[in-house]
Amino acid sequence: MASHSSPQSSLCLFLLFFATIFQLATSVLVKCSDSNFTRNSTYQSNRNQLLSNLSSAGWHTGFSFQTLGKDPDQVFGRALCLGSYNSSVCQTCLLNAEDAIKTNCSLSRRAGLWYDGCFLRYSDTNSITSDEESWSPILYNTAKISNPDTFEEVYSNLMGSLADRAANSTNFFKVGAAKFTGSITLYGLVQCIRDILPDDCYTCLQQYISKFQATAWGQQGGVMLGFQCYMRNDIYQYFNLSLIDATPPALPPELPPQPKGKKKTSTGTILAITIPLVLAFVLIAGLCVCFLKRRKSELMTKPLLNGSNREEIKSVESLLLDLSVLRVATINFAEENKLGEGGFGAVYKGVLPDGREIAVKRLSQSSSQGLGELKNELLLVAKLQHKNLVRLLGVCLEGQEKLLVYEYVPNKSLDQILFDPEKRHLLDWEKRYMIVCGIARGLLYLHEDSQLRIIHRDLKASNILLNAEMNPKISDFGMARLFGGDQTQHITSRVVGTFGYMAPEYVMRGQFSIKSDVFSYGVLVLEIITGKKNSGTFENDETEDLLSFVWQHWINGTITEVADSSLGQHYSRSELLRCTQIALLCVQENPGDRPTTSNVTVMLSSETMSLQTPSRPAFCIANSSIRGGGNPDFSSKSVPMTQNEVSITDIEPR
Fold it and tell me: How far apart are CA 341 and CA 361, in angstroms?
């Protein structure tokens, strides 16, 4: 074998590499879901318009998130260009990607596509599915690198540094370069979708860096991409070096040797002594900062992590946010940023450095929501992703502060509109019906469709948040309980929740199940229909609670008279009757007679399905006691009462 390459062979290698890189840059890598929509449907129309909107808007800033339509035809979309592209190239790429994704995934309900350095994605859900999250194809240069062990060390240092810096930047994008040999430089590029958490960005990039290293060991470079992040490395320059934050300073020039016999200390000697000392100081300072940061993290989470397994510890630590960040976001919890206040403390609006709006729940030191409840909420909500559940973004535990950070929901909670005489007109019948259906879908996800089976235990109007389109999001999972395997019910000696919404078997015997959540849902639906609190003022002494009030009109055949007066006559009589009947079925005394959440969603979506006749509601609240509908066992018992806005928060282990 020849010890040197001819000019012809070098040219061939160069052309081969150029062809490989060209293929990487222009390949269409696409992921289409198996679930399809109907041709010429509303969903297809919304999908096409959304893609057009994304390609038109995304090139201005390199990223765009948009949504279009209403459930079940609502479409969510994201467009992203590599940070190394200018706006003109980005625009061309997104327009081509729009055509390509329509061609490759013509009828798919969800799809993602990388095209020429830009990413386009649409879906019927705002969250990333497990199938999409696992999609991470690798394209690599087939040429081998000499001395791969040294190369891997340079690769790990460069890409790891870029991942850390990108996750802490505003646009989740970084490029860099590192010397491999005297003549070869390794170039790296990392980028994340811009609407994820910094920790999620860092985790995604680290996984890709490790996976590429394991899969393409010894290769000269390549690309790894997915729905949340992108990574590329190569020994050829493929971005403008001006994009690198800072170039390492050049080494000082070597000085000529001092003539012999002179006692004067040379500059070279001073540098030889000073530089190692400075480097040692920097290294020690860096180690101290890392130690203090880790120690701070441990102190913040220690009360939460006692008795937790490794997976739970990792889950909590991934959600940690610095108090300083939240102080800046909320302008030091300014009064003008306060969204509301309850027994647990206050909620503030804030804006993170990346522009995302957040709601910060600041628990007061005297709050009834303790560490057990806080941990419960963290570990449950962090694993849940559904458009009708509020999204938990992070937690902060520093000093006396206990802060939970959620996505910002602009219309606050349902009770603040539904029970406000001046605002209730904002909830016309169409919106109320949408809220009723949305809460049912959220409950269905908790009870049956998520990987976990979760009983909320405190479903009420103040725990339903409304976004800009008045779509409901179930919140506050501090009292929720996780059921495992085939478990269907549980008995507790500590009853927690809110009177007026709690099922009788739960109040009297501590027995809770999905049917106790269904009872709370029924009460909530009656409140939405009537615009009255379940402990409000009613027509006479015989109907002093909401369930009796509605039941009396039901048996008298005057059910339309329970409709909120702010609706006037502007409502669907058939929908109102159906919702009322479903709600009455949900609040029956025997849990076995109540429908499941899946039954409720089917009944709400079908106008022709016949419904059972409800029996008298389980119990009524009167004079600080609980009595059953003709059941002597209930009438003989009494339970201390609280206002229905106040929750009982005794916590027991999950």
Answer: 9
